[in-house]
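Fold this complex.
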Amino acid sequence: MNRAAAVEFERTGKTYYLPRLGRSQPLEAVKDVSFGIRRGEILGLLGLNGAGKTTLMKLMAGLLSPTSGSVRVLGSDPRDPESRRRTGFLPELPYFYPRYRPAEALAYYASLSGMDRAAAAPAVSSVMEKVGLAPHAAKRISEFSKGMMQRLGLAQALVHGPDLVILDEPASGLDPIAIHDMRVLITGLREEGRTVVLSSHSISELEKVADRVIMLSRGSVVSCVESGAWRGTEGGLEKLFMEAVR
Amino acid sequence: MKAFFSPALRVASHSLRLHLRDRFFGLFLLFSLLLIYSSLLVGVMAVYQERRALVDFGLALMELMGLAFCVYASATAVSSEVETKTIYLVFSRPVPRHSYLLGKMLAVFGAAAVLLAATALMHSSLLLLRGHAPDGPYFAALAYSWLKLTIISSLVFTVSMFSTSSLSSMVIGFILWMLGHFAPETVLMAAQAAGEGSLLELLARLIPNFQLFNFKDALDVRGAAAPPLAALPYAAAWWTGSYGFAWALLRRKEF
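Structure:
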């Protein structure tokens, strides 16, 4: 186990079995993947639809078990309660109970992360301030725009102060100002010493925030590039991505 | 134990609040109110048997409304969280699946108790209005109705773990409810049709016997019946069995 690694994939594979009449059909979503994620870095996952980005994130969040190989998160199995306590996960297009107010939803998720009421109340206020939801505290979630929902999604992933934050398409469907705010928030997490893993279809977004990008194609890692590589290259990350996946 | 019960109680209290805020819960309550108060007409038609007619009609209505709510709430409790992906926000946290399931089941049991209590309040007010104060056996009959509702809820939870849609879970739930009121007859017919000890008879024995809980049928025979205490461990066995089976299915699921 590499002590500097927040996450380690070692020859990890994940196969889904799709129900079909009479027998199930295997679908290999992730094949023999090995890489590590350093503590305190922002790692981007880039790939076409079906490349395996979400599967890798779910494996890190302990929502899925690998079919082969292993995954270690913060030194332990991702399904271990301690590892889950230190991980925050934002799924793509998160949903919240529309009749709740944001603080109610956050208090619930803080409690599920093991925080007691006394610790949760200031954590909820602080995270709402951080993601810019404090002025909307009195609104019901049903009144929220897509950008506010995404901010709330990020808030639930951060409310318990995780060391590892996993964000699946955090800028999905956001307007340019919301995307800018989200970018500022994500880079702020790195400054706090947290490890961030994010997936995106937007190459330009990853270019701006990521320290390193892992490119995936059909469930395999096809390339891993440091930020210096695209900053000093004509055509940037897009060119590197096209070369890697074609 | 704390690691098991603490998350379960958090999920339960959150889910109970959601049930009570759900518009369907309000609709069930409103519909119950209308039906219970319209039962005044039944009482008038019954003339000298007004109390009996009002009590029978009211208890049956409350149980049916409770059934509709419980089947709906149990069938959708987990599947709606899967559809909206809120289950990711729960299972990515240190919440064991067995605690989650227990919390969800307790929430439906609690909501059923609130629904029965609220409708019983309406019904009692009607009885008092007509000069028939509800007595101890009336409340015992209500408690047994609640036990029936908890059993059918547990079963629908189990069915919802393997059925393809919430609608099919609800349909199976209603079928089990009906069969459960003819459980001894179903077992007898299965034994006669396929022979004693046959697979069909065994399957028929997997239907809960709801007749055990129909204490409301004994209310008309004043002093002739005591609440069937054996029904309590019987209910507990069904909760435990259904929970265990549902958990075995949930722990293998990937979302």
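The mean pLDDT of chain A is 92.
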